[in-house]
Design a protein that fits this description.
The protein is of the alpha/beta class and 243 residues long. It has eight helices and eleven strands.
Length: 243
Amino acid sequence: MTLEKAAGIIPARYGATRFPGKPLASILGKPMIQWVYEGAKKSKLLKRIIIATDDQRIVKAADEFGAEAVMTSTDHESGTERVAEAAAQVEAEIIVNIQGDEPLVGGEMLDALVIALDDPSISMATLMAKVTDMALLQDSHVVKVVTDKNGFALYFSRSPLPYQAPDHFFQHIGIYGYRKDFLMNFHRLPVSRLERIEKLEQLRVLENGMPIQMIEIPRPTLSVDTPQDIIKVEKLLSVRTHE
């Protein structure tokens, strides 16, 4: 097996439109990017973890808590492009894209992606979790996914998927693993029609006829999109600290 040849990259853009400075937002006294980094460090299979950013303030913060950080272009339109720029300088067969707004990320979920990608027939994998709160099926901020019988994605959507599901659905968790050669080719493909409509970059992969292996994890994470999400994350982290 070639599991030792895996690296994690955390894209962190300072100037997010809805939440400027989001990577440095304080969560229980630590910047969010530190929570992401420390969660990723619990991985047993990622031998190198890099923060890829466009702002020296994030580099400075990373240095203060002992993380490796690299500066990338300010012109990237997606986190995938930023990850690809950083990955070009990394010697690894497998790259895991660890979203910088996932402070609840855990090492075991990242390792699950690496294990899936150790199969050379798998070029891309991502995560999903079963949700039984059916009110969330209507929430456009919750991305849904359906798969075939072998666990490969059929479609991702912000709309209810499946339509009128009675008991549960699967939420997509936006943490991705790629074989490096796949990543370097994928991010150069033009934006696809369904990607533009749904605002979901992974649809570009499906529209180009390439499979995505879905890996189920026990529970959803909670990404931070707005300042209000910080409150939710702090509550969850406080509960887990006392469990």
